[in-house]
Specification:
There is one protein chain. The protein has 19 helices and 21 strands. It is an alpha/beta fold and about 525 residues long. It has three domains: about 190 residues, Methylglyoxal synthase-like domain (Rossmann fold); about 120 residues, 3-Layer(aba) Sandwich (Cytidine Deaminase, domain 2), CATH 3.40.140.20; about 120 residues, Cytidine Deaminase, domain 2, CATH 3.40.140.20. A hairpin with a 2-residue loop joins strand 17 and strand 18.
Amino acid sequence: MAKLEKALISVSDKTGVAALARGLHDLGVEIYSTGGTAQAIRSEGIPVVDVASYTGSPEILDGRVKTLHPRVHGGILGKVTDSTHRGEMEQHGITPIGLVVVNLYPFETTIAKPDCSIDDAIENIDIGGVALLRSAGKNHAFVTVLVDPDDYRGVIEELRNDSGEVSAETRRRLAVKAFQHTAHYDSAITNYLDRGTPTEEKQFPTFLPVRFEKIDILRYGENMHQQGAFYREMGAAGPSIATATQHHGKAMSFNNVLDANAAMELAFEFDEPAAAIIKHVNPCGVAVNGRLVDAFVSARDTDPLSAFGGVIGLNRYVDIETAKEITSNFVEVIVAPGFRDDALAHLKQKRDLRLLDLGLENSETTGSTQGWTLGVDMKRVKGGLLIQGFDPVVDGDFVNLKVVSQRAPTDDELSALRFAWRVTKHVRSNAIVYAKANKTIGIGAGQMSRVDSVQLAAKKALRSLKGTVMASDAFFPFRDGIDEAAQAGITAVIQPGGSIRDDEVIQSVDEHEMAMVLTGIRHFRHA
């Protein structure tokens, strides 16, 4: 590549542009620019040539057309080592442009505004900028393209150190980044325009552009012979494992990420201080309490054996009492809104313990989780992709609770049923949860028949089930599940209903003098 002589700069985000222009000017590079970018560079006392004066064509149509010109794109796309290209460029007065610095109109920022109109959105669809990036990216054998201000300094240093040249490896890397940028930009526009009018908005787009950014290479996938990587969904709302800060411990594994996400989602299901312990993407203990440490102890005591080596989700800042209680056990990961300084220092004494900070405000409550479930849930299958809306929080499930038994649940039973129902949503089907007051007593997950889950939950319980309640994620197809639960000491049941044998199931409840409420909503979780 020849020594850089001319650069084109046209940016919407002007972060770092003055320093970049100063560095280029000091290296003897002539700068071409447009509109506000040219003004910003001139205000720093740096000479700049207006693109309009170079092309001989003024900006027109309210700035919609300013760089779409043969003298601009010819200068970017010309192969300077090709004699035919050089001859045509000389014939048409085209100057080679070796550096293109562009970032695009803030389309996503614009459409995120509540009062954004379709006209506002349309005017923030960049045309010339995308064309410049694609031209420079295509001809990266001869042209360096910059789209990210974080790359400015590195390119200037490389130009200084290598006699005004940028390496082929750097040019290729930056070209990839430019095409990634335009692909993301186009997908945002596609999603916006394809969703339809506000009155007929589509839940699922016709074409689904996937917009994820790689944040980490994992040691391996689910198993050691599988490769793995972790990607962040661009533009996703709410705290997440992908945006959490890891304060301490070994690198996260594929399975750690899955379990940490499950722990976070379950802990944040509750308004009260809550603790959830996850093992193999299933909860092995959940509890709420006035104090976080007590919630953790109750969750752990559901199934201490399974909790060994588990992943803990908490919905409050971790205090020193909770930290000390946690470190009396072997734990893989803790995910929480944040950590008190003394708690963090104590937890860091465990060398390999991974500490994930969600970065929420330092408050006694976690705040509303509304908006966390925006977007779609994606499940990959061979040759395709399943898309669904996220399963929302279960507050609405309690609005139309229907008592179908002869005996209505007591207030204490109803409170426990509500707690168990929230937990059940996070257990793999077929799911059964036994609970008492504000803590789980036994959990049966992932069985092929519902009665098996009923029996497994009883087997996992370490204390008497007398006086506990039961939640089922879907209806009971037969009365056998109720009969088994009654024999174990269950006094009340919450389930969706909807079986063709609901009458038989209700009859069994009444025979055992139990109470039952129906939600009319199920919460299958298959994967």
